Amino acid sequence: MATYELNLPVDDAEVEKLKVGDIVYLNGLVCTARDIAHLKMRELVNNNQPLPENIKGGAIFHAGPVMKKDENGKWYLSVIGPTTSIRMEPHADFIGQQGVKVIIGKGGMGKDTKEALQKYKQVYLQACPGCAVVLAEGIVGSKEPHWFEAGMPEAMWPLTAKHFGPFLVTMDSHGGSRYDDVQKNAQRIAKEIMDSK
């Protein structure tokens, strides 16, 4: 297990260094994107329109942040925690096509994501649920949101990260998946229990 501090955007070589079990911190632009933001991005690309942020080489965080405004009317992050990533599984190949290199969320993703991570040289990072306040300390700024009409959690928030994390690599660009390992182990234990009866 190794610890890495990545300065976004990153390239294939930097992603390929990462293996399941490594710890990662991020610096640079991290965009939140949940269900609606993924649909909005697809709509733009399908209509040959540019995305609102340059996410090539960057990070997408499956999260619904709680944002507040200061006395000058500028947005700042209060807390940020991951949302369940498997809902974004249908967008796996699309996100890879856009050049995203780092996906952050919780609960892992499925077969399509596992294939996309290898095809496009990406990595999936697990954000620890329940650490929303700790994670917020790694965000030092925010630009204006995109698609705020969908609501605060569903908007895309372009966040400026500094030593943002820690995140655990649970799916890597080499086909490694902590979730596959857990499932296999659970199946083995279940078989042992059934065979002992």
Could you write a compact summary of the structure shown?
By secondary structure, the protein is of the alpha/beta class. The protein is about 30% helix and about 25% strand.
Average predicted confidence as pLDDT: 92
Radius of gyration: 17 Å
Question: Largest sheet, order of strands side by side?
Answer: 2-3-6-7-9
Major β-sheet profile: 5 strands, mixed, barrel
Please tally the β strands and state the result. Answer: 9
Q: Name the assembly state.
A: single chain
Written as H for each helix and E for each strand, in order along the chain, the element string is EHEHEEEHEHEHEEH
**What characteristic shape results from the CA principal axes?**
globular
Low-confidence segments: none
Between the first and last Cα atoms, what is the distance in angstroms?
39 Å
Strand content: 25-35%
Roughly what percent helix? 25-40%
Structural class by secondary-structure content:
alpha/beta
Total DSSP helices: 6
Written overview of the protein:
With 197 residues, the chain is an alpha/beta fold. It is 28% helix and 27% strand. The chain has six helices and nine strands, in the order E-H-E-H-E-E-E-H-E-H-E-H-E-E-H. It has helices at residues 12-16, 35-46, 92-97, 111-120, 132-136, 178-195; strands at 3-7, 23-32, 59-61, 66-69, 75-79, 102-105, 123-126, 139-142, 158-171. A five-stranded mixed beta barrel has the order 2-3-6-7-9. Strands 4-5 form a two-stranded antiparallel sheet. The longest helix is centred in the last third of the chain and has 18 residues, at 178-195. The protein is globular, with a radius of gyration of 17 Å. The relative contact order is 0.22.
